[in-house]
Amino acid sequence: MISVENALQLVLKATQDFGVEKIPFIKSVGRILKEEIVADRDFPPFNRVAMDGIAIDYYEFSSRLRSNRQLSFKIEGIQAAGSEQITLKNNQNCIEVMTGAVLPNNANTVIRYEDVIIENGVATINIDKINEDQNVHHKGKDGKVGDVLIAENMKISAAEVGVLATVGKSFVKVAKQPKIMIISTGDELVGVDEIPLEHQIRRSNVFTLVSLLERLNISSETAHITDDKPILKSKIKNYLQDYDVLLFSGAVSKGKFDFLPEVFDELGVEKLFHKVAQRPGKPFWFGQTENCKLFAFPGNPISTFVNCLAYFYPWYYKSVNLKVEQETAILAENVTFKPDLVYFLQVKLSCKNGNLIATPIQGNGSGDLASLVHADAFIQLPSHKSEFKSGEVYPIIRFK
Amino acid sequence: MISVENALQLVLKATQDFGVEKIPFIKSVGRILKEEIVADRDFPPFNRVAMDGIAIDYYEFSSRLRSNRQLSFKIEGIQAAGSEQITLKNNQNCIEVMTGAVLPNNANTVIRYEDVIIENGVATINIDKINEDQNVHHKGKDGKVGDVLIAENMKISAAEVGVLATVGKSFVKVAKQPKIMIISTGDELVGVDEIPLEHQIRRSNVFTLVSLLERLNISSETAHITDDKPILKSKIKNYLQDYDVLLFSGAVSKGKFDFLPEVFDELGVEKLFHKVAQRPGKPFWFGQTENCKLFAFPGNPISTFVNCLAYFYPWYYKSVNLKVEQETAILAENVTFKPDLVYFLQVKLSCKNGNLIATPIQGNGSGDLASLVHADAFIQLPSHKSEFKSGEVYPIIRFK
């Protein structure tokens, strides 16, 4: 049995680069960017009008102000958004300008309509505190052509999609996702559509795993194999050829029909570890072949769930080179946990005065999937300690 | 101009129930549940073995312990997971049992293999501290048939998917999503695939909106209309018939070509408000017809972005009856903001010692979409106040 820290280290040593693919930018949310996004032009690309109003020459304005002359400017024309730049021909005049338009040539300052009265083609400014360049968003202010707007390895969200559109990246390079098969074992399991007999239950772990992978934008396939060693062996042999990752649920503990560790061994899979000093999820088995990683999770619903979050997620993040900040939360109640194991305890998170509070959810052990409905994270309580006090801070792993 | 609070109240008064649809449970992640999920049988459905080992009669064990007799039990048989319940015929004996199996009849306690030595068909227990019922997950302990396992109006995540599978809900009732059209205006806009002329820029707001709706599992359509009043009017007239919600970006401010408010009026749309005391996003226009809600956001990228989060999101949550907790964070730096407006400031969140810290991201105003790449939330700083101190706590809206 190894520690959670060592297990995680071994998992993170077995990460793998799955390469890069180009996809339409509008389908890229949640994917990991695999190129630098640079500005194809200045940002904004021209001196951009930032308010609807009139554009004037500031020097003319301030000279009239100093000499107490009238602040009225004849309107020479209109500069609409999307029109070519026009020129203020006479600096005694002004041009009506619209938000998003190019600032007219020879003008440098925009007065918004709210501060102007327009009558008979003449705009009279009714304020006297004006700054040169006001309401002008200058060419290149947010970025220069060639500037890196999005660094490589960022996770793409709505904000990045906007930038991709702006620079014309209709296709974008992202990390390819691993090809994953999720396999359940256990002869007590029947399909979701079936009516189980007294001693049977329906399959559920493969579907929670499918959903947990979907959170990472990974699509996956599922299969069920009966607890029959030759059948397990021949099917897994094929899956090892066809997939980058196999996730198993069940058949890794001490039971008479827990054939997986033997089968892996006979198929030449390198075992990296079996059993981790944690609860739930202790009998976790992890290994690899040259082209495939095998995460074999214990079959109890919460064991499978927490191990996917605690090991597969960080393995995926490192494989695609995504940095993820470790979150922490404040324990809301005293917790006693005697065994010398890391304890992954389901908690409900709430946010009070900028504090993240973790309230333990009472569950009935690793079989109690229904209790996860009321939780939204696991808090990770360390080993070598059995009393955890309200107010202490520990790492959390969110799943909602 | 109305306050942010009043604007939000008016938006929340205009929510709408879009009905219910049945979808495959495995496609239901992120959707809002519209039925109670009840246990179709006890949870677990039988006295379930929770450890691989042997099952015995506890009273026989304790009577031997008291009288100092040998703790050896002849193995009568094996109870595998997925097999019908067998019976311990002689309480002097034991049955090997596997995790997930039914506890054999006449047995009540499971000793794990780690605490047993098996030789020649006899299991000898090598510990003397055993509790009655240990390692047995009792029928109905996590829930009774008919118990509500998931309440209506919960957002479905991986945990709920597992429960849906367990109770055989292969199809599940969820809130129907509104049918949404996203419309951009502005003659300065060209397509993402095009090379803009000097005075043009590429469309980006519609794509950020598409992505922000995807976060709510809402798919949407997009269209662009030129700044031509008759064309705007005829197209919007059709959209009002065909969609539940129209989201607009641009053409709601004071510009000469900001035709939307007039067009809405001429089409008989009821205006609920125009202009909110906030920055960015002040010229926001909101209205409705009998069957359609219109969110007309100002065209600056950050204005569109923040208004979608601050108004459309809560409107959606209330429409589908989802309760969402208001998050707060601690300001990491002093901020000065003079105008008497609510200030939505982009921030980077980090988690230190269970505290959620919001560090302001320097942006160049509402046009600076690129600055959102470095942020992951907006912090909402109230009006009637201009100095916001490091350490103060304010509401946040996350978008990553």
Rg of chain A: 31 Å
Give the structural class of chain A: alpha/beta
> β content of chain A, as a range?
25-35%
What's the total helix number of chain A? 7
Most strands sheet of chain A: 6 strands, mixed
CATH topology of the largest domain in chain A: Molybdenum Cofactor Biosythetic Enzyme, Chain A
GO cellular component, one term (chains A, B): cytosol
GO molecular function (chains A, B): metal ion binding; molybdopterin molybdotransferase activity
Keywords (chains A, B): Magnesium, Metal-binding, Molybdenum, Molybdenum cofactor biosynthesis, Transferase
InterPro entries (chains A, B): MoaB/Mog-like_dom_sf, MoaB/Mog_dom, MoeA-like, MoeA_C_domain_IV, MoeA_C_domain_IV_sf, MoeA_linker/N, MoeA_linker/N_sf
What keyword list fits this structure?
homodimer; 400 residues; alpha/beta; Molybdenum Cofactor Biosythetic Enzyme, Chain A; Molybdopterin biosynthesis moea protein, domain 2; Molybdopterin biosynthesis moeA protein, domain 3; six-stranded mixed sheet; 7 helices
Structural summary, described in words:
Two copies of one chain form a homodimer. The first copy, chain A, is α/β, with parallel strands linked by helices and 400 residues long. Chain A has four domains: 4-18 and 177-319, Molybdenum Cofactor Biosythetic Enzyme, Chain A, CATH 3.40.980.10; 20-40 and 150-175, Molybdopterin biosynthesis moea protein, domain 2 (Alpha-Beta Complex), CATH 3.90.105; 48-137, Molybdopterin biosynthesis moea protein, domain 3 (Molybdopterin biosynthesis moeA protein, domain 3), CATH 2.170.190; 327-398, Beta-clip, CATH 2.40.340. Chain A contains seven helices and 28 strands. The radius of gyration of chain A is 31 Å and the shape is elongated. The mean pLDDT of chain A is 96. At the A-B interface, helix 3, strand 15, helix 4, strand 22 and strand 24 of A face helix 3, strand 15, helix 4, strand 22 and strand 24 of B.
